[in-house]
UniProtKB/TrEMBL annotation:
<keyword id="KW-0147">Chitin-binding</keyword>
<comment type="similarity">
    <text>Belongs to the glycosyl hydrolase 18 family. Chitinase class II subfamily.</text>
</comment>
<dbReference type="InterPro" id="IPR029070">
    <property type="entry name" value="Chitinase_insertion_sf"/>
</dbReference>
<keyword id="KW-0146">Chitin degradation</keyword>
<feature type="signal peptide">
    <location>
        <begin position="1"/>
        <end position="19"/>
    </location>
</feature>
<protein>
    <recommendedName>
        <fullName>chitinase</fullName>
        <ecNumber>3.2.1.14</ecNumber>
    </recommendedName>
</protein>
<keyword id="KW-0119">Carbohydrate metabolism</keyword>
<feature type="domain" description="GH18">
    <location>
        <begin position="19"/>
        <end position="386"/>
    </location>
</feature>
<keyword id="KW-0732">Signal</keyword>
<dbReference type="GO" id="GO:0008061">
    <property type="term" value="F:chitin binding"/>
</dbReference>
<dbReference type="InterPro" id="IPR050314">
    <property type="entry name" value="Glycosyl_Hydrlase_18"/>
</dbReference>
<dbReference type="Pfam" id="PF01607">
    <property type="entry name" value="CBM_14"/>
</dbReference>
<dbReference type="InterPro" id="IPR017853">
    <property type="entry name" value="GH"/>
</dbReference>
<dbReference type="InterPro" id="IPR001223">
    <property type="entry name" value="Glyco_hydro18_cat"/>
</dbReference>
<keyword id="KW-0624">Polysaccharide degradation</keyword>
<dbReference type="GO" id="GO:0006032">
    <property type="term" value="P:chitin catabolic process"/>
</dbReference>
<dbReference type="InterPro" id="IPR036508">
    <property type="entry name" value="Chitin-bd_dom_sf"/>
</dbReference>
Length: 452
């Protein structure tokens, strides 16, 4: 009996540590106004296991290249986060489009182009202290050569894998992580990926389980439904998480490498009749959000300003919420839908979760009266991760004197006057409580834990 209990504890611990919570940030979120402005300095170093920095691109010489003028500064911010949480892994994402065309297409077409890209990637990632690469191979297989692009992607992935291994051996370092963001629509999966082959080489695979429905359609549908709805017809019966994940699994992807996508945003419609439910007639998007300023699309923190006055409903078949107000219709995610998706993830033994994005959760806690990162913190807790070594103050709740410790103090380590076995770390005004190893106490003279 004791042994079984011990085994159970081990299994639970193992589950928590082997599962991944991968969070994307975007380098365009820095341009959102006031409280929407987001940079790597806004990241909680203990929230996610991995942070993916989106986005970099490929130049005309086939080299990995940054996009923004201040990417270097933001990379320095990521490095600071890793100094605070040495377990945090950071990855750089490459992809997107240049003039509407994926920069991958020309690069993968020739062996020497791929070699240049691979070499430049390793140098760039090592120089800027990244732990891995994320290939955002999402809209490939156009320009009329889908079969070619499909096998060329496999070639790229296998060559990257080998080069990362060689680099690790040569430089006596941990190999760089190799990951991809991949499509969720069944026809795209079939056209774009040799599933069994690429999954051999990839450390994990983020399935983009959102954008299933949006204002480009003539009737309301949810951005990220867990299951199909009885109103779905034709190919729409596959526009849900369960269909996508089942397809990846049936095609031979190992469950433990697949990460389920959790969107911290919703998609909007403008209703064109008095009907307000799922499948109601619509003609285009609702007004753009004041911070994300993109029609058809609201961040979670923008929905927090909207839902209190809206009629909020739940779609039981699809396990997701929606909200209507006037002629606006919003299909979004909340803590409840995140919990349902975590259950699905666990039941299917998936390798964890990825979030699109950190910058669309209520990262500063100033919109939703629910603390900083309410959705991702809830996700983290639902996945069974241990509590973070943080006591980040929630601006809207009553102040805890300990959480207030670092207000106005410079970054650094401080003794905890009430418990010598612990100490505070101040980082950008937030308080992080750390514990010394058993038997040791904190000494401010060395800013370290040592024998009493
Ligand atoms: C999930 O998808 C599988 C495979 O398509 C299907 O057999 C199953 O019925 C689906 N589950 C639900 C609840 O829709």
């Amino acid at each position: 009996m004791k042994l079984l209990t011990a085994l159970g504890v081990l299994l639970v611990l193992n589950m928590a540590t082997s599962s991944r919570l991968v969070c994307h940030m975007t380098n365009w979120a820095q341009y959102r106004p006031s409280s929407g402005k987001f940079t790597s300095d806004n990241i909680d170093p203990f929230l996610c296991t991995h942070v993916i920095y989106a986005m970099s691109t490929i130049n005309s010489f086939n080299e990995l290249t940054p996009i923004e003028w201040n990417d270097d500064q933001q990379f320095t911010g990521l490095k600071r986060l890793k100094n605070i949480n040495p377990d945090l892994k950071t990855l750089l994402s490459v992809g997107g489009t240049v003039n509407g065309i994926s920069p991958f297409i020309a690069m993968v077409a020739r062996a020497e182009n791929r070699a240049t890209f691979i070499k430049s990637s390793i140098t760039y990632l090592r120089t800027h202290n990244f732990d891995g690469l994320n290939l955002a191979w999402e809209y490939p297989a156009h320009n009329g050569s889908p079969e070619q692009d499909k096998t060329r992607f496999t070639q790229l992935v296998s060559e990257l894998y080998k080069a990362f291994e060689d680099d690790a051996k040569e430089n006596k370092k941990t190999p760089l992580l190799l990951t991809a963001n991949v499509a969720a629509f069944i026809p795209t999966i079939d056209r774009a990926y040799e599933v069994q082959k690429i999954t051999l080489y990839l450390d994990f695979i983020n399935v983009l389980t959102y954008d299933y429905h949006g204002h480009w359609e003539a009737a309301t549908g949810h951005n990220s439904p867990l299951y199909s709805s009885s109103m779905d017809s034709g190919t729409h019966v596959h526009h849900n998480i369960n269909s996508s994940i089942s397809h990846w699994l049936v095609n031979g992807a190992p469950a433990e490498k697949l990460l389920l996508g959790f969107p911290t945003y919703g998609r909007t419609y403008h209703l064109s009749s008095s009907a307000t439910g799922l499948g109601a007639p619509a003609n285009g998007p609702a007004d753009a959000g004041p911070y994300t300023r993109t029609a058809g699309f609201w961040s979670y923190y923008e929905t927090c300003d909207y839902t209190p006055s809206a009629n909020v409903g739940w779609i039981p078949e699809q396990q997701v919420p929606y909200a209507t107000y006037g002629s606006s219709w919003l299909g979004y995610d909340d803590k409840r839908s995140f919990s349902s998706k975590v259950q699905y993830m666990t039941a299917n033994n998936l390798g964890g979760a990825h979030v699109w994005t950190l910058d669309m959760d209520d990262f500063g806690g100033s919109f939703c009266s629910d603390g900083a990162y309410p959705l991702i913190n809830h996700l983290r807790m639902s996945m069974g991760f241990p509590p973070k070594p943080t006591t980040t103050p929630a601006p809207t709740t009553t102040r805890d004197p300990i959480a207030d410790f670092c207000r106005g103090r410079p970054n650094g380590l401080y003794e905890n006057p009430t418990d010598k076995k612990t100490y505070f770390q101040c980082f950008q005004g937030n308080t992080y409580l750390h514990h010394c190893q058993p038997g040791l106490i904190y000494w401010d003279s060395c800013k370290c834990c040592n024998w009493p």
